[in-house]
Every structure is written in C-alpha cells, then in structure tokens.
Amino acid sequence: MRDLSQIVKAYDVRGVVPDQWDADTARALGAAFAKVTGAEAIVVGRDMRPSSPGLSRAFAEGAASQGADVTEIGLASTDELYYASGSMDLPGAMFTASHNPAQYNGIKMCRAGASPIGQDTGLTQIRDLAGQGVPEFDGKPGTITQKDVLQGYADYLRGLVDLTGIRPLKVVVDAGNGMGGHTVPAVLDGLPLDVVPMYFELDGTFPNHEANPLDPKNLVDLQAKVRETGADLGLAFDGDADRCFVVDEKGDPVSPSAITALVAVRELEKHPGATIIHNLITSSAVPEIVREHGGTPVCTRVGHSFIKQEMAETDAVFGGEHSAHYYFRDFWRADTGMLAAMHVLAALGAQDGPLSRLVADYDRYVASGEINSQVADQAAATEKVRAAYAGQPGIVVDNMDGMTIGGDDWWFNLRASNTEPLLRLNVEAKDATTMAALRDAVLALIRG
C-alpha cells in the first residue's frame, strides 16, 4: 500500500519525478483510472517535459492492463487533450505540470466529454485504488494505438472564431518553450497574422524563463519584443498552453478580467441574455458589463471544478477567472487559452484602434493583483481583519470563498491556501490611491 496523498491534489496529480512518483506510480494510476471511469477506451496526451513520455506510456499500460483500449495523441496542449476527449467522447488524461519547474510532472484527468475529475468526482477513489498497486485482471488487455489530433483541434477552434476577414495584425507569441510552440502554428498559420514567435522550441527544462505568465518577470521578454517590433499585441502561454496572457501594443499587461469582459460581450452578441460565469476575485467590472449587455452574471468560488459545475447547472456560454483560465460551452465547458486569444484577435482585427483603447472600456477599476502573506495561523489573521471591518456602516461581508469585504467603491478578498501557510489577498478600488491605502491597511493587520 503506497500513500499518494502528497501528489494527488484537489484537481489533479502533481509532484517531483522521480522523488515523489515514477513510472510504477503512473502505471497504478492508469489502472485505477480505467477502473473508476469504467471506460472501455481512453485517450492520453503529454507535454514536452523529459519525464512525460515514460510516465504517459506507463499510465497507458496500466489502463490497458484493465481492458481499456488507449489512444495516445502524443505531444499536446491540455486543451488539445480536452478536444480529443470531447470529440471522441472518451475519458482523458493529460501528462503535464503546467507552469511548475522542470522536475515536476502531473496528470489532469477528465471523464468523457472533457468533464472534470476532481477530489469529489473520482480523484479520491483513483488515489486510493492506485495506492494498492495494479490489480489482477482476468479479461483481455486493451490495445495502445496512436492518433494525431492536432489538425482536428485547429480546425475545430477556427470554426468557432472566424479570423479570415480581420485586418492584418502583427502578434508576438511567447510559448515559453511549452506546448504553445506546438499548437500556435497549427491554429494561426494562413490567417491575416504576422506571427513573431518566441521560444517555440519544445523544451521541458524551460531554458529561457518559467512558463508561468502569471509572474510578471516571465512577461518581460514578450513586452520588450512587442515594443521592439511595433506589434499590435503579444500573447504568452503557460507550459501546457491552456492559459493565455495578453499584452497590448505598448507592452502593458491586459487584465484577465478585461479579457473576460471582452469575450463575454462577444459571446452575448451570439447568445443574447445568456449566463456568464466569473469567480469572486475577477473585477467588479465583469458582472457590470455582463448586465449592461443583457447577460446574467453568476459568481463562483475560485477553481476550475466550481466554474465547470456552475456552467453545467446554468448552461452558461462562457466563464473567466483572474488566473487567465477561460471556459467555453462550445468547447465542452473546458478551458482553452487559445480560443480566448482568438476572440481577442477577432475583436482587435474588426476595428481600427489599438488594443489599449479597445480594452479600456473593460478595465474600470484598479486592482492589487494577488498578494501572498506567510502566516502561522490563517484563521486568526482572517478574524483579525474581519473584526477591523465588519459591523461598520455600509460594509458587506461574504464568506463564499475565504472572506470578501466590500464598501461603496472598493472590496477585498482574503483566502487561505489549501497547501501552504499562506493568506492570499486581492484588493480592488475605484482609484489607485484608495486601492493602495486599503491594501496597505489590510496587509498591516495580516502581518502585524
């Protein structure tokens, strides 16, 4: 019996190879995945990390040992794996550790139709079963075959957003040596785009910078190249290319909340009155803009499982998160940074102004970004903040995900990390002065 609790997280498998897991673990997880999903066939993809070929093949062998036929799609982005799962109507497993350093690897799993598997939807059973090793199986083992779905994935996305008629645009794309280098050429080639590629070579050792665009230092190269080449915009993908960050023609980052609002407006043009999902730390501008365009905004907790669940229950057409995950009903409610990027290109290419002017309409407030504080007692620090603000006139307190406290023209959210002794603070206000004062006051309470 092996304890897999250190690598099986709330939404996926993630850990250091080979210290925390190896091919034997992957084989047991593959067998457990086949058993728990009850699948006669599954699909498996992998990223460019050095450990991905061996781990993904071991997983496939484990699933096949339980009678499941396995289709390996080889190198893929996570949303390409979701496309395979959705279009083939098969459970899927994607080998990636996303933006984590090179020594990490992981698995994102889904049921048929790209339906997510998390702690409450099968991942706990997979963990417990895999902890017992690969079980005996009396029946006939499954087959392992290969299939290339990259062109199908590209064609599907191009069918959702038509870029053929836009004005010519110059776009710098930083793939961070991740899977964007594999998918971007397939999706964007042949369109009215002058693509300036950066770090398209697939290299899971990340020789240029971490494939984590959420960290501002990893955007520096892209920002410089946009300014240097006079590009209309820049796009940065994370390691498994399911998230996309945007910078404007000045090299300034565009808030994921502004992208959420922009895409929401475009989806509401196609689906008047539809529901749009956003998590509770996206900008207040998002629900405002959704209502202004006749849509129904619905707020959820942070995390893709909550977004996808709410999308299924409300039949929402689109959902966006502050972390630049974007979810589409037309894409099996799964997240795809590529499709969000195509919406931005379509919106920009349909008018003559620069991106900075286009997104200004969607960027109404000043945000702090997420600020982490290491605290020994998260609950005590949170209560200290609550005591300082709750009960004052006009103050609203919400406990949906951590604690959100709001006034007339500001709000902040304080959430405890599930895995580290950290409190995460997000602040938004009507202007920079109000935001900075509120941010500093709350941080003083947390860290004092």
DSSP helix count?
14
Q: Give the CATH architecture of the largest domain.
A: 3-Layer(aba) Sandwich
CATH superfamily of the largest domain: Alpha-D-Glucose-1,6-Bisphosphate, subunit A, domain 3
Return Rg in Å. Answer: 22 Å
The helix fraction, in percent, is 25-40%
Shape: globular
Strand content: 15-25%
Summed over residues and divided by their number, the pLDDT gives a mean of: 96
Number of domains: 3
Largest beta-sheet characterization? 7 strands, mixed
Uncertain runs: none
The overall strand count is: 23
The level 1 CATH classification of the largest domain is: Alpha Beta
Keywords: Isomerase, Magnesium, Metal-binding, Phosphoprotein
Family: Belongs to the phosphohexose mutase family.
Protein name: Phosphomannomutase/phosphoglucomutase
GO biological process, one term: carbohydrate metabolic process
Any overview of this molecule?
GO terms for molecular function: intramolecular phosphotransferase activity; metal ion binding. Belongs to the phosphohexose mutase family. This is Phosphomannomutase/phosphoglucomutase. InterPro entries: A-D-PHexomutase_a/b/a-I, A-D-PHexomutase_a/b/a-I/II/III, A-D-PHexomutase_a/b/a-II, A-D-PHexomutase_a/b/a-III, A-D-PHexomutase_C, A-D-PHexomutase_C_sf, Alpha-D-phosphohexomutase_SF. It comes from Yinghuangia soli. The protein has 448 residues and is of the alpha/beta class. It has 3 domains: 13-148, Alpha-D-Glucose-1,6-Bisphosphate, subunit A, domain 3 (Alpha-D-Glucose-1,6-Bisphosphate, Chain A, domain 3, 3-Layer(aba) Sandwich), CATH 3.40.120.10; 152-254, 3-Layer(aba) Sandwich (Alpha-D-Glucose-1,6-Bisphosphate, Chain A, domain 3), CATH 3.40.120; 366-447, TATA-Binding Protein (2-Layer Sandwich). The protein is built from 14 helices and 23 strands. Strands 1, 2, 3, 4, 5, 6 and 7 form a 7-stranded mixed beta sheet that branches. Strands 18, 19, 20, 21, 22 and 23 form a 6-stranded antiparallel beta sheet that branches. A hairpin with a 4-residue loop joins strand 20 and strand 21 (403-406). The longest helix is centred in the last third of the chain and has 16 residues, at 432-447. It is globular. The mean pLDDT is 96.
